[in-house]
Amino acid sequence: MKNQYLTKLLFTSLMSVMITFFSFGQLPRPITFGKVDLADLQMKTYAKDTSAVAVVLCDYGEYFYNFIDGGSIPKVVYRRHIRIKILKQAGFNFANRRIAYYMVSDPDKSETVDNFHASTWNLENGNQVSYSLDGSDLFDDKGTDNIYYKTFTFPQVRVGSVLEYTYEIESGVWFDMRTWYFQDDIPKAWCELRAEIPGYFEFNMTLRSQIPLKIREMKQGEQNFIRGNIRDPFLAYRFVMADVPALKEEAYLTTIENFRAKLDFELSATQFPGQQKQDYTQTWESLNATLLDSDYFGKQLKKYSQAEKIAATLKATSKDSLSLLKAAYKYIQNSMQWDGERSWSTSKQNLNKVAEKRLGNSAEINLMLVRLLRECGFDANPFLLSTREHGAPSNFVLLKKFNSLIVHVNLNGKDVFLDATNKLTSVGQLPFECLNEKGRLIVKGEGRWIDIPAKEVSKKVLEATLEVLPEQVLKGDIHITHSGYESINFRAKVVAKGKESFISEYKKARANEQVSKIEVLKLDTLEASPELKVQTQISDAYSIAGDRIYLSAMLGMGEKANPFQSSTRTYPVDFGVPQEENYTITFKLPANYVVEEAPKNELVNLPNDGGRFEFKVFTFNGEVRIESKRVLKKNIYTNYEYLALREFYNKIVAKHAEQIVLKKK
User: TM segments (predicted)?
Assistant: First the structure.
């Protein structure tokens, strides 16, 4: 029964997608190498995006399988043809290209790059002229994790050039088909993938996109693969997007990769002729059990033998469960050094060896903490997550979607998260990069998803009292308090430089100030809010015109520019955590001056109680006090809330730019 070999399609996306059966036969390719339209060479701008420095005229790919060595070894072939138009000088960097491929010692599992051709096309005296490259012009460059690159540079590139290149990659990693990316950092006029998959394989295909497919087709066919003259079925897919906008970085994103339009492939099963069906789809339950039984995960918990002795000491000196939790966390935090690697698994060495070296990756350090907390009597377990830079967590059972391990503790029915890799975070306070929606608890029985909270406010409070002196001088004190995630950022800056260097650089960065004294306080106690106290004298602090003084109400310490410049936004705005910023600036006026004009009070509220901006001015007894408060109550604002958020910041920037006018009596 041939139909038992047909590929199954699981197709999910942000929009409703229907795959229909369609026989497109021997459909011609959208472009042919070496045949460039005159209109493309004459193009001056791309009408869909006139700001584009370059545009991909066509990105065409083919995925298909070959069977070698008598049909016993499958190879997947990736064929690619890309054509790029250079529109501005800033687009010249697209003349430097690289082709990634995978290489290990086993040639049957490695990838090879073949059939490479490239050409630069220019209009010269009205004629089409090409400058060509071939395989001898490729250079090898080693990446990381067995990834290598073939690099090359197009010759004779100028504004108006059309660049095209084509290549094939034959891969022994037949079970892990490459993700196809529809979207790039420059717009694409046409992007098409055709994939022919033998019925021996079942793949789940997942489209992640906010851009609709222009064409989505599937056909059924038969051909010889591995059984001599017997023709077996295959399914052929065609996916096309047109007028794909450039993917542009914007302020306050987790990672731009969360929003790149792409098609993922996941092998779910194989069934070769005469063999039993092999199911590769995991459930969360099976993944949970596999990890707990793994030499690089669950079994490592038994190999940190020092934990029992350390726990006995900690329990003898701790008065209650919370103090014991803090002591255990602090012990691992201070005794171990993080090597900078985020990982959900340990390396080949066991945790006793890691403890001896006092150096480990995120999984090793936090599994040590899990074991120590268990010895202390806590319900502690490993917790898998994807960091913000790595991308959004996936509901699909894919271990590669995680890249780190932290610790979850059930403390009196409440979720407490710990990550001992960072020496500047306190109990329940994760490093900022770990605040990424949710993670997976790995525990005996049945693991589960748990939301990662982002409730702690990042808060900065500034209080300044400054006397307005003659000759454009302000003199006084500035006191800044940092709490929540703002405290982590401040501590990190001071620790990275050292307190003395931090103070020295603070002074150097303020050329118009004479700083007489600086104090950095409460830096060593993580539960406290660190403070910065400065005694200063500011020169050229205001301007004089006749009998009037013009003084910046915020002294340039407020919002100077709106971080949200675009009139529209496709992506949500992700601040990571709620935020609060309070400024109180008091000016002591000269005895012979009065306030002639001051900024008006203002109150701006975001919709749905999303936040507020308050600006107040008080004048009394020869003083002017400015109070500015910005509150963002949510860590994420949707793209539908963007315009209100943009206008919110417009008003803050405008208000913070206003002046106080003093007039001589």
Answer: 9-27
